[in-house]
Amino acid sequence: MELRRTFNKDAYLYDEYRPEYPDELFTDIISYTHIERGSKLLEIGVGTGQATRPFLELGCDIIGIELGDQLSSYVRDKYKDYDNFKVINDDFMSYPIEENSYDFIYCATAFHWLPKEEAYTKIRRALKKDGTLALFWNHPYPNREDDRSNLANQRIYQKYRPSDEKQIEFSEKDCNKYRDELVEFGFQKVESKLYRRVRTLQTEEYIQLLNTYSDHIALRAEVKEKFEGDMRKAIDEVGGRINIYDTLDLYLGKTE
After folding, report:
1. Distance between CA atoms of 168 and 171, rounded to whole angstroms?
2. Kind of pairing, strands 127-141 and 241-254?
3. Residue 212 burial (CB < 10 Å; 0-12/13-18/19+)?
């Protein structure tokens, strides 16, 4: 199974344990784009709609494209009371999109699954003049050396998935890649911004969160069971909670 299709296995789990995005991020997007009631939006990789509600409540008309059939069904039901929302169960790269038809296209923590050049080209063609593209991600970091719960997490990962590569927290310099790409593919007035927050999860909440990540889902069943058992024990031994230090990065660019 392709890793990007693993998220479709349990839509409820994904919706329950993947975090939503901060209000400040949506405020910044709306201020940059000037979208309003009736604006036409396209969301790529809608998932279970963690990045959808603020734009629905603004009154925008949204089409969400989602590869997973279970995820599509789940988010369709989740927002069934909104008549300004439509879900398409398809791959964005193969779905036919009319040129110059959207005011705003956005993708939350999913753009890295798409073929870069083809995706940027298709998005630019689909946007109206002075339309906006927004890309954003959440980078969870449970690996700080001054946090006992993070050290416990590292110990279990090193036991089951050892690596010599040092885990580095996402920072401003990491934004250069997507800023440069937006410029390379013809977007104007490119901006980026970082947001930070700390989440504290109880042991079982953290285990469930791990089960929404493609690399964890793809583990062999016997390895996954032992990994989770040892992780439960390690987190319980340091108080039954783990702190996760999130960095969220937002990129905005306009068509001519």
Report:
1. 9
2. antiparallel
3. buried
